[in-house]
Amino acid sequence: MKSAKIIKIIDTYTAVINKGEKDDVQLGDLYLIYEMGEELFDPDDSSKSLGKLEIVKGRGKVGHVQENVSTIEAIKEKRSGDVKTTTTTNESLFEELISSVVVREAFETEEQMPFKNVKLGDFAKVVR
Length: 128
Description:
The chain is mainly beta.
């Protein structure tokens, strides 16, 4: 399928593309939203084009499909990290040796990542 184009921006998490049911767009399809950047050339042969750079603005999933248009919603991505919690104790027999305990807790969350500076005319392609 030919790349779709962004035809409406609803908010930083939602955009509309110019492809729909008749273009075989399906609910849940994963799309890459991008802008076409500058043309790049081979450093060893400056006459050889390597194509244009795709500047990624986000990834989204089809949330609604109509005959000629579809709505793309920014996907949720898993984030992980750790939190440091410091606890002090006054009741320990070893208070002189251990005045505080540092506890590390791993966590994982899902966060919806907004599209980055998406504009009308930006491209969207399926990355199923």
